[in-house]
Amino acid sequence: MKLAWQDSDVLDLPTLGTRVPAFDGLIEVPGGYGAKLAWARDQAKVFRTEFATTGTPDSVTTCDLITLPYPTKFGLFRASRAIAPFLSITNRMLVVRWTENDGRKRVLLFEPSDHELGQNTPYFAALIRRTPKPLQSLLTTQHGTVLGHLTRLGIEPEDVDYLLFDHLHTQDLRRWVGTTSPQPDLGGAVVRPAFPNAKVIVQRHELLAMSQLHPLQQPWYQPETYQDVRPDAFLPVDGSLILGPGVAVVETPGHVLGNQTIVLNTSTGIWASSENVIAAECLTPEHSRMPGIARWARTWGQEVVINANTIETTAEQYNSLIVEKTLVDRSQTDPRFLQFFPSSELTASWANPGTSPTFTHKAIAHS
Question: pTM for the complete prediction?
Fold first, then answer.
């Protein structure tokens, strides 16, 4: 399948920010994944010290988008003993604002998912077809839209500089970045971008991989929606970068090849957010009260419980989680848990016994 950027020079465009050298050399670490884990943990400590000196953004605001069902065997991997086949996750957007050294104001949206179009992702489309409509409405709650939240915050779409996702699973970006040709399923016209000045920050690896997906990846992507998107809307990056004061993107491969994590230095300390896990307690499973989690981690010597809907490279994802775990501070609400904010966070639901989280963040707030 030919995607929009294959006939352009988008993959050769210069990137942004300040490169983070701390994680260079991981591929060359001798030995197996265990040796790479020890190296990654040490380098995360190095970067943590450096990152804390970069300052803080002007503000971080959390916006709830949608609560929806998700298979327990994916979200809690092999650890859960819950009888419920599904749990609930709440997807949230972070609005991050900062000021550059030259005084320019920046606005970044992290995880601004277009959930209406995201339902067409093969896995979720199949799940929706199998679920009776009355049950769908009971299990899914829409809290707000990306554009609605921005209106509430007084942010014009034209003022958004960057769109950032931890990876492009389920994402259909046509309404956000626009298209170069008519789209029959979106009214039959060329789609004008909702965010005309925004660049999508994405790991170059993931852009390249989407043109020829592996069968294990196919249920989670919508590559056909990228055939006509504006190629100049993408800003490919290689590895980890400091984007602004107290704002960084760190490459965290494993869940997908081009996975990335936003890292934020705030008034409560350092936070990280991605979908590598779905609950803060999955980074400290010894403190989880959910059935099976602590026991499984103790029995198998597992330091984390990964989100495993795609197991592209499980050991890499585990190692990336240790990087995230090492970077962040402890929660000021409950120091047993870390300031890791799942971009899709486990949420208690009457319909899913045994999956109620021990602890939830619900939001990052900084101003």
Answer: 0.96
